[in-house]
Design a protein that fits this description.
It is a single chain. This protein is mainly β. The chain is 0% helix and 55% strand. The two termini are 32 Å apart.
């Protein structure tokens, strides 16, 4: 079983979800950020896949769901884990995502601090975050896309999963301490990057204009 955040739709026809946990099962590649729930199919955190819902399941954008991956690369949502918050347009207040909730920021400008305290946060589309992003207590935060800019610091502490991919720009410092995993690929970091105590780490193909301090097992390339 994998986990993901519903991006759009929610009807019985094929819609999109953003993968936050590829899950495990037959055909799984257990390398950082890669997994599969079907033989011969490879997905990763931040992948967008089409899905249908199992009978009796109703979901909406922002919801955190559990899915199985089909042989054709689509998913079947089998359960809704938590109801989520969808943020679009302009959001001028602090956002808190706790352990019983999830949130999707999609094509939005957020002016205020974001705190993810054990929940799941996905940022996609054309987004500007004007504020600090605090991540703690086993959260999952995924930002993917070359139209995402964070005008502030990203601070992650204590068993989180942090994924930045596909051209995200962070105008401040990124700090990761004692996290479960950190993946930063193809992004721009204008400030300092500090990684310490990560269990898994994949930091490749980035432009980092500040100082890099990365302890084992993290290798920045």
């Amino acid at each position: 079983m994998g986990k993901g955040t519903v991006k759009g739709g929610g009807s019985s026809t094929h819609d999109q979800l953003i993968v936050s946990d590829p899950g495990s099962g037959s055909g799984t590649d257990t390398g950082i950020g890669i997994g599969s729930t079907a033989p011969g199919t490879r997905i990763e955190e931040g992948s967008e896949i089409s899905f249908t819902t199992a009978p009796g399941i109703s979901v909406s954008p922002g919801d955190l769901v559990e899915f199985t991956l089909n042989a054709d690369g689509t998913g079947t949502v089998t359960a809704k884990i938590s109801s989520g918050k969808l943020i679009t347009g302009t959001y001028d207040q602090q956002l808190v995502v706790n352990s019983t909730s999830s949130a999707l920021i999609l094509n939005a400008t957020v002016s205020g601090k974001i705190t993810c305290n054990g929940g799941t946060l996905v940022v996609a589309g054309a987004c500007v975050i004007d504020g600090k992003v605090d991540i703690d207590s086993g959260s999952t935060v995924i930002m993917k896309g070359n139209q995402i800019k964070v005008n502030g610091k990203v601070d992650s502490l204590n068993q989180n999963k942090l994924v930045l991919k596909g051209g995200v720009v962070v105008d401040g410092k990124i700090t990761s301490t004692n996290d479960k995993s950190i993946v930063i690929q193809g992004c721009t970091i204008e400030g300092k990057l500090e990684v310490a105590g990560a269990q898994q780490c994949a930091i490749t193909g980035n432009t980092i204009n500040g100082r890099v301090v990365a302890g084992p097992p993290c290798v920045v390339s």
